Amino acid sequence: MASRSRVRERPCHALTTLTDASPAVLADDDLDIYGIGASTSVRDCGALDCAPRIISSTVRDTPGGGASYTVLGQLRIQAPAEEVYALLTDYARCHHVFKNIASSEVLRTDGGELEVVQNCKWAFLAFSGTFKVHLGVREDPDRGILTFSLVQSNFMNDFEGRWCVRPGSGEGGPSGAWCEVEHSLSVVPSVPVPAAVAYYTRGIFVRQVESILRDLQEGMASRPGGP
Question: Which residues belong to any copy of the Coenzyme Q-binding protein COQ10 START domain (predicted)?
Answer without folding.
Answer: 77-198
